[in-house]
Design goal:
Order of helices and strands: HHHHHHEEEEHHHH
Radius of gyration: 21 Å
Low-confidence stretches: 113-123
Strand content: under 5%
Helix content: 55-70%
Number of strands: 4
Protein backbone atom coordinates (compact mmCIF):
# COMPACT_ATOMS: atom_id res chain seq x y z
CA UNK A 1 0.00 0.00 0.00
CA UNK A 2 2.84 2.41 0.86
CA UNK A 3 4.60 1.55 -2.39
CA UNK A 4 1.42 2.27 -4.36
CA UNK A 5 0.98 5.60 -2.53
CA UNK A 6 4.56 6.57 -3.35
CA UNK A 7 4.07 5.73 -7.01
CA UNK A 8 0.78 7.64 -7.30
CA UNK A 9 2.04 10.76 -5.49
CA UNK A 10 5.45 10.63 -7.15
CA UNK A 11 7.18 11.26 -3.81
CA UNK A 12 10.88 12.15 -3.98
CA UNK A 13 13.30 9.68 -2.45
CA UNK A 14 14.97 10.69 0.82
CA UNK A 15 18.44 9.73 1.88
CA UNK A 16 18.43 7.95 5.25
CA UNK A 17 20.07 9.80 8.09
CA UNK A 18 23.60 8.61 8.79
CA UNK A 19 24.31 6.50 11.85
CA UNK A 20 26.30 9.36 13.41
CA UNK A 21 23.29 11.70 13.20
CA UNK A 22 21.10 9.09 14.90
CA UNK A 23 23.70 8.66 17.64
CA UNK A 24 23.90 12.43 18.16
CA UNK A 25 20.13 12.57 18.54
CA UNK A 26 20.23 9.75 21.11
CA UNK A 27 22.98 11.50 23.05
CA UNK A 28 21.14 14.82 23.10
CA UNK A 29 17.92 13.11 24.20
CA UNK A 30 19.82 11.41 27.03
CA UNK A 31 21.37 14.75 28.01
CA UNK A 32 17.94 16.37 28.15
CA UNK A 33 16.69 13.57 30.42
CA UNK A 34 19.65 14.00 32.76
CA UNK A 35 19.07 17.74 32.91
CA UNK A 36 15.46 17.12 33.94
CA UNK A 37 16.61 14.60 36.55
CA UNK A 38 19.01 17.14 37.98
CA UNK A 39 16.30 19.80 38.21
CA UNK A 40 14.02 17.31 39.99
CA UNK A 41 16.79 16.35 42.40
CA UNK A 42 17.48 20.00 43.16
CA UNK A 43 13.80 20.56 43.94
CA UNK A 44 13.70 17.52 46.24
CA UNK A 45 16.82 18.67 48.09
CA UNK A 46 15.07 21.91 49.04
CA UNK A 47 12.19 20.09 50.75
CA UNK A 48 13.87 16.95 52.11
CA UNK A 49 14.52 16.94 55.85
CA UNK A 50 16.24 13.61 56.58
CA UNK A 51 20.05 13.71 56.46
CA UNK A 52 20.37 10.34 54.72
CA UNK A 53 17.99 11.37 51.95
CA UNK A 54 19.84 14.65 51.51
CA UNK A 55 23.10 12.74 51.18
CA UNK A 56 21.58 10.43 48.55
CA UNK A 57 20.28 13.39 46.57
CA UNK A 58 23.70 15.06 46.59
CA UNK A 59 25.27 11.79 45.43
CA UNK A 60 22.74 11.55 42.62
CA UNK A 61 23.44 15.13 41.54
CA UNK A 62 27.17 14.38 41.39
CA UNK A 63 26.44 11.28 39.33
CA UNK A 64 24.23 13.26 36.94
CA UNK A 65 26.92 15.93 36.52
CA UNK A 66 29.47 13.24 35.67
CA UNK A 67 27.14 11.57 33.17
CA UNK A 68 26.37 14.90 31.45
CA UNK A 69 30.10 15.60 31.25
CA UNK A 70 30.67 12.19 29.63
CA UNK A 71 27.91 12.79 27.07
CA UNK A 72 29.24 16.27 26.25
CA UNK A 73 32.68 14.80 25.67
CA UNK A 74 31.30 12.22 23.23
CA UNK A 75 29.18 14.79 21.36
CA UNK A 76 32.14 17.18 21.09
CA UNK A 77 34.34 14.39 19.72
CA UNK A 78 31.74 13.39 17.13
CA UNK A 79 31.22 16.99 16.01
CA UNK A 80 34.97 17.51 15.80
CA UNK A 81 35.21 14.45 13.55
CA UNK A 82 32.68 15.87 11.10
CA UNK A 83 34.09 18.75 9.03
CA UNK A 84 30.71 20.37 8.32
CA UNK A 85 29.39 20.13 11.89
CA UNK A 86 32.75 21.22 13.30
CA UNK A 87 32.71 24.41 11.21
CA UNK A 88 29.12 25.16 12.20
CA UNK A 89 29.98 24.58 15.86
CA UNK A 90 32.89 27.06 15.67
CA UNK A 91 30.57 29.67 14.15
CA UNK A 92 27.90 29.19 16.82
CA UNK A 93 30.22 29.43 19.83
CA UNK A 94 31.73 32.61 18.37
CA UNK A 95 28.39 34.33 19.10
CA UNK A 96 28.37 36.04 22.53
CA UNK A 97 26.23 34.14 25.02
CA UNK A 98 26.21 30.85 23.11
CA UNK A 99 28.25 28.18 24.85
CA UNK A 100 28.95 24.54 24.12
CA UNK A 101 25.65 23.12 25.44
CA UNK A 102 23.53 25.63 23.51
CA UNK A 103 25.55 25.05 20.33
CA UNK A 104 24.93 21.31 20.69
CA UNK A 105 21.18 21.95 20.79
CA UNK A 106 21.25 24.38 17.86
CA UNK A 107 23.12 21.86 15.73
CA UNK A 108 21.30 18.67 16.68
CA UNK A 109 17.71 19.69 17.50
CA UNK A 110 16.93 20.75 13.89
CA UNK A 111 17.97 17.22 12.84
CA UNK A 112 15.57 15.55 15.26
CA UNK A 113 12.27 14.08 14.08
CA UNK A 114 9.41 16.57 13.97
CA UNK A 115 5.78 15.46 13.52
CA UNK A 116 5.02 18.61 11.51
CA UNK A 117 7.37 17.49 8.71
CA UNK A 118 5.32 15.81 6.01
CA UNK A 119 6.43 13.03 3.70
CA UNK A 120 8.84 14.25 1.05
CA UNK A 121 10.02 17.32 2.98
CA UNK A 122 13.59 17.74 4.14
CA UNK A 123 14.35 18.53 7.75
CA UNK A 124 15.08 22.26 8.12
CA UNK A 125 18.50 23.30 9.40
CA UNK A 126 19.89 26.62 10.56
CA UNK A 127 21.71 28.33 7.74
CA UNK A 128 19.33 27.03 5.07
CA UNK A 129 16.26 29.16 5.76
CA UNK A 130 15.02 32.72 6.06
CA UNK A 131 15.16 34.65 9.32
CA UNK A 132 11.43 34.18 9.87
CA UNK A 133 11.69 30.45 9.25
CA UNK A 134 14.58 30.22 11.69
CA UNK A 135 12.54 32.02 14.36
CA UNK A 136 9.58 29.74 13.66
CA UNK A 137 11.82 26.69 14.04
CA UNK A 138 12.40 27.67 17.66
CA UNK A 139 8.81 28.85 18.15
CA UNK A 140 9.97 32.45 18.60
CA UNK A 141 8.16 34.07 15.67
CA UNK A 142 5.16 36.21 16.76
CA UNK A 143 1.90 34.79 15.38
CA UNK A 144 -1.00 37.17 14.74
CA UNK A 145 -4.44 36.27 16.14
CA UNK A 146 -7.33 37.79 14.25
CA UNK A 147 -10.81 36.97 13.04
CA UNK A 148 -12.64 39.46 10.87
CA UNK A 149 -12.28 42.89 12.52
CA UNK A 150 -11.14 41.37 15.81
CA UNK A 151 -7.42 41.66 16.40
CA UNK A 152 -5.85 39.77 19.28
CA UNK A 153 -2.37 40.05 20.72
CA UNK A 154 0.52 38.43 18.89
CA UNK A 155 2.01 35.44 20.66
CA UNK A 156 4.69 32.84 20.03
CA UNK A 157 3.66 29.24 19.55
CA UNK A 158 4.69 25.99 17.92
CA UNK A 159 8.28 25.28 16.97
CA UNK A 160 10.61 23.10 18.97
CA UNK A 161 10.19 23.81 22.67
CA UNK A 162 13.57 22.38 23.68
CA UNK A 163 15.30 24.59 21.12
CA UNK A 164 13.42 27.60 22.52
CA UNK A 165 14.34 26.76 26.13
CA UNK A 166 17.98 26.35 25.11
CA UNK A 167 18.05 29.98 23.94
CA UNK A 168 16.77 31.44 27.24
CA UNK A 169 20.02 31.49 29.25
CA UNK A 170 22.15 32.81 26.33
CA UNK A 171 19.61 35.64 25.94
CA UNK A 172 19.92 36.55 29.62
CA UNK A 173 23.69 36.43 29.31
CA UNK A 174 23.93 38.86 26.40
CA UNK A 175 21.40 41.20 28.01
CA UNK A 176 23.82 41.52 30.93
CA UNK A 177 27.07 41.66 28.98
CA UNK A 178 26.31 42.93 25.47
CA UNK A 179 25.70 46.68 25.28
CA UNK A 180 23.55 46.73 22.13
CA UNK A 181 21.35 43.85 23.32
CA UNK A 182 20.97 45.46 26.74
CA UNK A 183 19.96 48.74 25.12
CA UNK A 184 17.35 46.96 22.98
CA UNK A 185 15.99 45.15 26.03
CA UNK A 186 15.84 48.36 28.09
CA UNK A 187 14.10 50.23 25.25
CA UNK A 188 11.39 47.56 25.05
CA UNK A 189 10.87 47.69 28.81
CA UNK A 190 10.55 51.50 28.68
CA UNK A 191 7.91 51.15 25.96
CA UNK A 192 5.87 49.05 28.37
CA UNK A 193 6.72 45.60 27.07
CA UNK A 194 6.71 42.82 29.70
CA UNK A 195 10.19 41.43 30.52
CA UNK A 196 9.20 38.05 29.07
CA UNK A 197 8.36 39.67 25.73
CA UNK A 198 11.64 41.61 25.71
CA UNK A 199 13.67 38.48 26.47
CA UNK A 200 11.83 36.60 23.72
CA UNK A 201 12.85 39.32 21.26
CA UNK A 202 16.51 38.86 22.25
CA UNK A 203 16.16 35.07 21.90
CA UNK A 204 14.71 35.57 18.42
CA UNK A 205 17.55 37.92 17.52
CA UNK A 206 20.09 35.27 18.56
CA UNK A 207 18.47 32.56 16.44
CA UNK A 208 18.23 34.83 13.39
CA UNK A 209 21.86 35.91 13.83
CA UNK A 210 23.00 32.28 14.08
CA UNK A 211 21.08 31.44 10.92
CA UNK A 212 22.72 34.32 8.99
CA UNK A 213 26.25 33.45 10.15
CA UNK A 214 25.82 29.77 9.30
CA UNK A 215 24.36 30.70 5.91
CA UNK A 216 27.30 32.99 5.16
CA UNK A 217 29.85 30.58 6.71
CA UNK A 218 31.43 33.25 8.90
CA UNK A 219 32.09 33.77 12.59
CA UNK A 220 30.60 36.57 14.64
CA UNK A 221 32.64 39.76 14.82
CA UNK A 222 31.84 42.82 16.88
CA UNK A 223 30.77 45.82 14.86
CA UNK A 224 33.00 48.87 15.39
CA UNK A 225 31.36 51.62 17.46
Amino acid sequence: MLAKMGAVLDLPAQEPKSESINILRELLTARRALTKDNAAAKTRSQTTLHAVLKMQIRARQKQIALQIKQIDKIIAKMIDGNEELSRKFEILISIPGIGQATAFSMLIVPLMICKQITVGQRMPELGTMTGKQAASLAGLAPISRQSGKWQGKERIQGGRAFFRRAMYMPALCIIRHNLSSKQKYDQMIKRGKPPKVAITAIMRKLVVLANVLLRDDRKWTEKPT
